[in-house]
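testing teh design pipeline on a random one, pls ignore if ur not involved
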């Protein structure tokens, strides 16, 4: 029973880590897009 509880906790931990990584990656893409859009606006393109 304890073994199953540890396995479940580890699985939940891994899921949260994966979701967090995707969120940070998505945020990074948003920042990159915003910077490029700002640069294009300032250059007059």
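output:
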């Amino acid at each position: 029973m304890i073994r199953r509880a540890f396995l479940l906790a580890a699985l939940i931990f891994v899921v949260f880590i994966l979701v967090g990584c995707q969120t940070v990656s998505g945020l990074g893409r948003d920042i990159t897009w915003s910077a490029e859009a700002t640069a294009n606006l300032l250059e007059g393109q």
